[in-house]
Structure formats: structure tokens, C-alpha cells
């Protein structure tokens, strides 16, 4: 698979530049790395945030 070096900011002015999740230092250090990870018990925070965001989009 060929990797495309395109930033989402090249595609849209409406790019959210954060993840609504509480992570620890180890998880923060893993972001975009080979073994990126978050706790399963924190995933609901992301789901709840985006459900609210999309649900309120006008």
C-alpha cells in the first residue's frame, strides 16, 4: 500500500485537531507510533463526544 502524505488540513478548513480522551503518559507517548494504544475503558469518551458533536451539527 502506497502511503499518501496528505494532511487533512489540505482537504478541509474544518479539521478538529484534538482527541477528546483522557490518556496517560505512556499512551500519549505512543500516539502515531507503531504500538499506539488507548485504554478500552476510555473509548466511550471519544464516542460520546463525537456523537454529541455530530448530533448538534447544523
Name the descriptors.
58 residues, mainly alpha
Per-chain topology:
Elements: H1 8-11, H2 25-30, H3 43-55
Short account of what is shown:
With 58 residues, this protein is mainly α. The chain has 3 helices and no strands.
Notes on the structure:
- The chain is mostly helical.
- The protein has three helices and no strands.
- The chain has helices spanning 8-11, 25-30, 43-55.
- The longest helix is centred in the last third of the chain and has 13 residues, at 43-55.
- It starts with 7 loop residues before the first helix and ends with a helix.
Uncertain runs are none
Strand/helix succession = HHH
Rg calc: 14 Å
- Overall geometric form: flat
User: Between the first and last Cα atoms, what is the distance in angstroms?
Assistant: 37 Å
Please give the share of residues in helix.
25-40%
Assembly status: single chain
Mean pLDDT: 83
- Structural class, judged by helices and strands? mainly alpha
Count the E strands: 0
Number of helices: 3
* Main beta-sheet strand count, sense and barrel state: none
Q: Beta-strand level of the residues, as a percent range?
A: under 5%
Amino acid at each position: 500500500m502506497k502511503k499518501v502524505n496528505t494532511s487533512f488540513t489540505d482537504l478541509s478548513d474544518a479539521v478538529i485537531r484534538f482527541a477528546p480522551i483522557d490518556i496517560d503518559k505512556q499512551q500519549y507517548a505512543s500516539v502515531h507510533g507503531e504500538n499506539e494504544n488507548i485504554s478500552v475503558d476510555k473509548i466511550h469518551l471519544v464516542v460520546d463526544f463525537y456523537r454529541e458533536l455530530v448530533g448538534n451539527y447544523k
